[in-house]
Amino acid sequence: MKKRLYYLAVGMLVFLISYSIGAKINIEKEQSSLIKEQFETKIEGIDEVGIFQNNVLIALSMFIPGIGVGIGIFSGFGTGLVFNAMALENTALQNISPLAILITPFGIIEIFSYGLAISRSGMLIYDLFKKKSWKLLLKPTIIEIVIVVSILIVAAFIEWNMIKQIIEIPK
Asked: How many domains is the chain built from?
């Protein structure tokens, strides 16, 4: 159990570092406008179901042995890049740490979920190279997938309710 918690912490750290790099990288005004426009198009008409679908698709792909670590890094970087672009376009965000969004209830839940998935991906590839049986690896992987899906449902509802409060969407 102690070893599993260590891998979870490493997975969460991998996501946070990737996010931080994306949030701090220098981008041009044209790039930030394009990123912001693409993000707004992607989330147009989204609700809690759409948020869940987006997050669970990303998280489930992070469970792919080995490749999931790369997907997690790419996802963290991309999320940070979106924050970066939004901050360049919105002066109110420029004075906020990019990590502030991650200390929201849904942010903490999502980091945990992505960290769990990233770490399982790394553990799976390591165990497969060690020639461990798929049968031994399947049960803990399925349990963790169920955990991630379950908590991402909760995170989507929390995130959607926070979004509705911020932008005053009619009920």
From this structure: 1
